[in-house]
Every structure is written in structure tokens, then in C-alpha cells.
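3.2 Worked example (two chains)
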Amino acid sequence: MAKIDDILPPGESVNKQKLRQYLASREWATPQDFGAIGDGIVDDTAAINQALEEERTVFLPPGTYRTTGPIIMGYGTTLIGTGAESVIQARDFPYDAINLPTYPSNFNGIEVVDGYSTIKDLWIVGGATGIELAGKAGPCVKNVIENVTIWDAKNGITFDGWDDTNRPCYWNNASRILVARPQINGVLFTVTPIDGNSGDTPNANKLHDVRVYSLSAPLSGSGFFLSAARFHNSFVDCEANLHPSGEACFRLGFSTDENRIVNFYAESLGLLPGVKIDNGSKNTTIINLFSATGGAAIFDPTLGGEYQAYNAGFPTKNFLKDVFVNDIHIDGLTRGTTFIDPPIEHVGDIEIDLEHTFYLVSSFNLAYDLVLPNASDAIGRHVSIKKSDFRDNPITIKEKDGPGPDRREIIMLQQYDTVTLISNGANWWVLQDNRMPQRSTFVDVDTIPSGIYEASMLHRVYLVSAFTGQLIFQLPEPDQAVGRLATIKKIDPSSNHIKIQQINGTGGPDASIFSLIAHFAALTVYSDGGQWIVLSDNF
């Protein structure tokens, strides 16, 4: 067994804690016993592997151990170091804290190929995967990875079901792990078939206090990607702080079932979601999710919704995006609300995107058209629209490239007019409409040079004066005023006629042209969409 002087680099002084570690190491083998140098230049791969083959426990003294192939952890072996001073460098060049990394390694830093192994208090720099757990020699079970930092690997830690169900990846434990600047994924759960043979998905593995941190380095995958993982893999107090180029802080692939995510912290300046759930994933439980990303806290793009979430998402709790629910009990419900009040200089229509269920609208400054999405783009969407101001400026509710609610346009004129709509994908339908009786308006022939007044049907009562000459009062086509009711009353004492007819002289109420001659004569008409019908008259 090597002496302490042989283990320590020449001239290096140590503190008492290190000395105690070195004294304890006299019972353990070191790679130096088998020819390792630990200077970051000489290839120490063979020496470390030989030490692990011949001794159950290998101590890695302070130093940088350059490797050109994977370090193999067989059954019951232990590799323990002194923390940041014990470095396995799985590439030709050393760790660089300043410059963004390149990822040249095509081999893994450490491969755990069997069960009951321990990796503790190490740094790993580089590697196709920093640490891979896969049952290549025997069942990859009950392995422990503790207090390890992995820098600049393509994938930080991989749990792999490999190619044989008799050699599964079960019951492994990883805690106090930092994966920094990964190129693809920080933590990967997968199955790698070999020659058409496929093993079981990684099951019942426990990860605690595992942190994935991009540190400004782009990555193409996720902080945690469970490509294949079933039956009670748990992730407690873990974190992913990712570059905006990533897919998700935590992604659940299609072949995942019964996984547990507790107290997860997701952070990114980009739009990637906190947790993304792929089609096929089911029975995941998410508890206490803190999501500080630009995307959804939980994003289920397939609308599967086969997961449970409690206190999931910050600052919005349980922001589930599109989710189908068969049965639900709600104690309290907050509806998303938008206020629309265009300035007087506004020109054109206003299109609403249905991101909210309630729109409080104002036409205080001007009249405008409020355009709904086409019904085919809003299947099942429910929206309420309420006019909040007291001005006479109408708000016309239309449909983009469609006929509109109940196949017509809706005009909101009175303060507090409200309409509730729903789309079945073919049309928008009115569920509820409390628009109050329209106000009256005064029509004077003196202000109408042509002598022809075209009624907009925005009002319920038209008080008309023909004192200085005859006036023609034109109603719109019946199908343009479905359900509208109007009363036309002559308020001047002259004998001049007020003729009531449809626009362009195409008939009138009850298929007739009516004339109001007497003072206070009045006619009330109603459109059923096919014709104007006289409801009452007093002449």
C-alpha cells in the first residue's frame, strides 16, 4: 500500500481535515498504487480501472486524472475522493471556468455496470455522459452517487435500462449532485436497445438535491428528461436552471408512468416550460412546483392531462394550459379578464384572442367592431362580453371570416349590455344576452337633405318630425335585424307623411308601405329575419 508521501503531490501541504482523509486512505488502494500520476496530462485510465478491479474501495487523492475511456465500476466497488480536488478529466483539456465548453468526448466519464457501487466526493469534467448507470454486467441496483459535480458532459447522469430485463436499472440513489453546462440533458432516463434486445425502463430510482445549471451554456435537451421511466422514480428538492435554448426544465417522455416530482424548482429566461408532459406519459404526481420560466409551469400539449398537480406553478398556481376534465369540484374560481378601451385615434377592428373568458369593453371614445376568432378555431371556448361605458357609441360583435353569433352581428349600445357566447366549432352561439331596451333617438327631416332616413336599429324608439316636409323612414332588410323591435312615432302636428318601408323600397312591414300622417301616430314593428311584422299601431 502506498505511503502518504507517495500519495501527495511533491511539496503539497495539507490541513488537518485532509490529513485525516489521507490517514484513512491507508486502508484503501489508490490509482497511484497502479501507476497513476493525476497531473491532468498523463492518461490514468488503465491505472484507475486496474485499482477498481483489484480492490473494492479506491481512494482518489487530490489531482486531475485524465482519462481516454470510461472508468468502470463493477459490483460492490467504491470510488471516493476529496471533493473538488479529486477530478476525473474525461477529455484532453482541463476544466475552464470562463469560456463556454466544447464537447469532444465520445466516451463516458464513469460507467456503473453492476450493483451496490458507491461514487462519492468527486468532480467529473467532460464525457459523453458524466456518469452512466446501466446493467451491462449485472443488475444495476442499489448504487449510490453522492456529492458529485459533473461539468461539460453531453449528458450529466444517465439511468439506462439497457438490453436485458434481468439486468435492470432499479433502486439507485443520487444526492447532492451538480450537473453544470450539459450539452443535451442534465439527467436522462432511457432504454438503449442492443441488437434488437430491450431492457426494462429505469424504476424506483431516488434523486434528491440534484441540480442542473446551464450557466449561460446552450443545451438542446432538458434539465431532466425521462424518455423512459416507470413506477416510482422520485425527484425531491431538485432544480433546473436552464439556457433559453432548452426544451423544458423537466420533460416526461411518452414511456413514463407513476413518477413523483416534489419541491421542484424550474427557472429559465426563455419560454421553455417548467414541466412538459409528452403524449403517453401518465400518472405523474407534481407537488410544490416553483416555476420561474417564461413558459407554462406545466405544459401538456397533447391535452392528455393524465397527471396530478398540487400547488404546481408560480406565480400562477396549477396553470395547466389545455386540459380535459371529466368531473371537477371547485371551491373558488378566478376567471381571466381583459379590459378593452381603444383611444380616440384608434382605426380598424379589434380582434380578441380568447386568452381570457371575460372581456370588459368600453366604447367611451369611439365605436368599433369587436371580432371573435372563427368558430372553427375556438371549439368549446366560452366567452362573456360586457359593455362598461355609458356612451352611445355602438360595439359590434362579429366573427372573423364567419357570420357571427347566432349567424348575425350583435350590437352592444347600452351601458352594462352583456352577451355570453360559446363555439361548437361550426358556429358561435348566444347562450345569454341581457342587452337592455335601446334608447330613443330623434329624427328631424330638417337635418336630412335627401329626405330619406335609414334606420340603424340601434334604438328602440324613433321620434320622428316631418314638420317641414315628407320623410321616408327606411328599415334594414329583415335578415340584418333579426329579433329587433322598434317603434316609430310622428311627433309633429303637420300633415306631411312619414313613409315606413324597407330599404331600397322593397316592401315594408306586413308587406306594405305605411304612412304616419296624424300627430302622435305610431307603428311598432318586429323582424323575424324573414320579414318585418307589425305588432301594433295607433292610427
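3.2.1 Second chain
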Amino acid sequence: MTTAGWVWLFAGLYWAYCIFWGVKGYFWARSSTQWTIAGRGLPLWLFLLAATATSFSGWTYVGHPGLIAFDGIAYAFASFYVLTIPITATFFAKRLWLLGRRYEFVTPGDLYSYYYGAEHGWGEAIRWLIVLIAFLFSSFYVAVQLVAAGQIFAITTGVPVIVGSLLLAAIVYFYVAAGGLRSTAWVDALQAGLLWVGIVLIGAVVLNYFGGWDAFTNQLRSLGPEYLEVPGAWKPALIGETEWTGVFQLTYMFSLMGIMASPAFHMWTFANRDPRPFPWQQVFASTLFIGFALFFFTAIQGLGGRMLMDQGVISPETDGQVVPALIRELVGGPLAGVVIVGALAAMQSTGAAYMGTGASILMRDIYVRYLRPDAGNSEQIWVGRLLVLVILVVALGVAFTNEAAIVLLGGLATAFGFLLYVPLLDVLYLRRFTAPAVTFALAFGIVAVVATYSIDAILYPFNIHSAGWGGIVGFGTAIVVTWATRRREPSLRPLAVEVRSEMSQWLDDIDTPTAREKSWRRVMWVVVPLWFIFAIGPGIVLGNNFISFAGLPPVWAWQIVWWIIGFVMMWALAFKAGMSKPLATQIQRAHAETRPVVTEVGLRRSRPATGEAGESGGS
């Protein structure tokens, strides 16, 4: 059988699995909540696999090794997103689930509109801004996956990129629209394994081509310092070529932290039966297992690809073409089928998650909230399915007009997600910002991200990523506007203040750390900032003069050491400090003390939860 035949065989089996879960989900999802957040019933192991697949996408599979090949080992510090993505969830996911369970929130708009006061315009303005962020995030991130999927499918089957992208988009659309989040989760469970296996296999093939580990590391010496060293801690030129300095790397990682702060992951959090899978996903599935694949095998792909480019074995024109070129030249037969399906799984896992959650947010927060508040479950589901198609069409338009910007589009999308750090930190920990402050912070943050983002990576102001500028503008705006409006808010919006007080008191009461957890948290207040500085910040420049072991170049060795330190840090945060690990009593209380403020059709009315819960249920 030819390589193309093997690819079609494995792809056919994989797509049959996708279609099966689409059909099964179609008959299962009978209510709006079942379609949007799987009826709040995702079990531990399913979320663990699905969240991992959603976090690490086609960009991980294709774009990440490609940028290492073009920009060198300095870019490989981006592999630390195996920690910075889940560290977001470590701080937020458990508390977010507790609030979502007690008040039965479905979308982030439900949460923030209620918290900041839906009885006045600010709460609803925040809802609209989150809808905008969700739409932009979904459209750009899905576009990345569709372009990558079409390109990598074309290299072995001969199918044109546009035709392949449309075929793959149709498969994803079917199971997402038919079964909603539950079908997406079941497909993602398989995709997580395929993604990991594919990355390892491609790296192993490249390593074998060079004759094994020792031969590979010996040949790395042929690469110049521009590929094996960090260019500096910071080069704050207003105009100039973007360089992977420590400061740029740090702010770029802020962008990737936006993945689990995004509106989509709010809904994935609400969809869980309980929060017990959170620490296991964060520490082991993401940091340990995906980290192992990235710090070794994507680095092998990227640096090996650089050497093969220098030797004339492959000749990709862009970073997005490096992995397809490696597969075309080095992989064949049934192994090609496996790695191609792994690539398709990586791309579809993330595309599906953002298509589904983006459509759910548009349906509930716009259509039901303002246009059809009396819409029944069947109508809501069918409108959601139509909106999945709308997001898909927009994403296809973006994909086919920006093919050269595959990785950078993903960076723009996740930068929007990082803006949600403002309301997340405020609702779950700070309790300082006023409703107008959060509204203006999100609005100006969106403008800052767009204004400072360079689609061709030639210019970021002062060599700071747009996520960094979005965070600076967002938090700066929140602080200034809060200072200007805090005194007037209690008299102008007393009901909103009462709601916030009740929610904050309940959350602090149910999630009070033990004495031992407090001790661990005090230690983490020192460890985490130091880790950020030396693992992904200005301190990475010290890696240029680090010791070499196992034949690794100094900077690569530095990355491995800080990955191991980061794994221990994540374990301490999630389990020992209790940031992510829930207690059985917390889960029981959250279920027992449920006071729903939303129904199948959205927010009931803004009122303090200390009042009557009202009639539950949906239309």
C-alpha cells in the first residue's frame, strides 16, 4: 500500500470515530445545558484527556517545531507553555468551578454580568466584551488549525490544501454541531493520545536519520550561535526586528496563558462533574507528559529540521512548512498514516473546542439573552449549530487569506484570552475593581492587543508581545478607573455590591486554606516569581553559559533543568498548597448549597443570592 493509501486508511478510521460520537451526542443532547456544557457531567479521566488535547493544538504539532528551526533554541523556551497554560488553571479553575456549580453559570458572560451587576449597563457591557473576545479568539484560533490541517494532509494525499481544509472542516463541524461539548470531549480523549504519539514519532524519525542521540548532538555544533543562544535579556528598541529576548519571551508566554483564561475554558470548567481532575491534568498530563514530548522531541524536530535545511534535504519557505517537509522526506508507509492522523487530531481538537464554545456563547449571551428569551431547548440547540457554522465560515475566510501567518494568528487569538485575567483575578481573589473599571479594561485591552500586534513579526513596540501590552493597558486602566469610581459605586449600584459581597464571602468560606496549605503558599510566593524570571523571563540569558550535559547545548540543558523544577513547583502549587486540589467537603457543599441564578435561557435577574433562589429549570 502506498503512503497515501495508509494515510487515507488511518484518517478514515479516525473520522469514523468522530462521526460516531457526533451521532451519539446528537441523540443525547436534549437540553441547552447538555449541548453547551455537557450537562455538567464530564468525568475525571475524560476532562483530563480532553483539556490536554484542547490546550495543545496543531500549532504545537506544526508551528512550534517550525519556529525552532527558523529562530533557534531561543524560541524553544515557548515549550514552557506546558506549565504556563496549566498554571492559569491552577490559580483559577477550582474556584471558578465552585462558583459555576453554586450559581449554575453556563457562560463567562453569566458569571461576570451577575457579579458586576446586570441591573445596570456595566454588567451587560462586560458580557458583550466577553462575547467579542470569544468570537475573535475562536475565529483566529480555528483559522490556525484549518490552515495547518489542510497543509499537512496535502503533503501525502495530493489533495489541494483548500479542498483538504474544507473536508476536515466538514468533519469537525458535524460532530461539534451535532453533539455539542460532550461529543467534542469524547473525540478529544482520543486526540490527546494521537497528538502525543505523533510528536514523539516524528522526533524519533529525525533522530534516527542522524544516527541516534550522540550523532545528533554532535552535529548540533555545526549550528551557529544564532540558533543555540538567547539573544539577550531585553532589547527595548521601539522599531526593529522581533527577537526572542527574555522580556519578549515572558510576554509571549502571557499570550499562551490566555488559552486557559479564555472564555472557552470557563465553559470547560463549568462542564465538569467536580474539580477533582484539575490538578492531575495540570501537573501530570500537561507539565509532565506533554512537557516530555516538547522539551525533547519538538526540539529534535526543530533543530534537526534546521540542520536538514542547511544540508539541502528539505527546503521549507516558512516555519509552517518544516514539519510537513520532515514528514514528506523522512516518513512513509503506515508510520506516515499515524503521524498525519496525529496532526489532524491536534488541529481538530482545538478547533472543535473553540467552535463549539464560541457558538454557545453567541447563542446564550446574544440570541437568547436579547432576541429570543423564551426560546426552548430545541431552538437554542439548533441556533447554536447554525452559529458553529458561522464561526467556521469566518475562520475559513481568515485562514485562506492569511496562510503565511499561521503561528502568529494563534498568538493574536491567545492574547485576547489573556485579557480575561483582569476579571478572573478580581472575582476570584482581588475584589477591588469596579464594574466600569473592568469594562474599560477589557475594551482598552482589546484595542491595545490589536494596535501592538504585528502580523509579520517585524515590529512589537519595545520588543514586548501584544499580550504584554494588553495586560499593561488592561490592568492599568482597571486601577485608574477603580480609583475614580470606587466612592460612587455603593450608592449608584448597591445591589451589585451586595451580590459581590455575598459571592466573595461564600467563596472564601468554602475555600479557606489549611494552616499547612498557607505555609506552602508563602513559599510559593517566592518560588513562582523566581521561576518566571529564570525559566521564561530575562534570566534565561544565563542559559548561554550554563553547563552542558548529555551532549545538550547549554541553553537546551537550561530548559530541561527548569522544566524539572517547574514540574515540582506545579505539584507543590496544585497539591501541597491546595490551589487546585479540592476537598470532598467542598464538592459536597457546592452541590448542597446551589442557588441558581441562571436557567436554560440565561440570567434570571440580578439579585443577591441571599434572596430566594426562585424556580429552577428551563423552557
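3.3 Remarks
Residues 601-619 have pLDDT under 50 and may be disordered.
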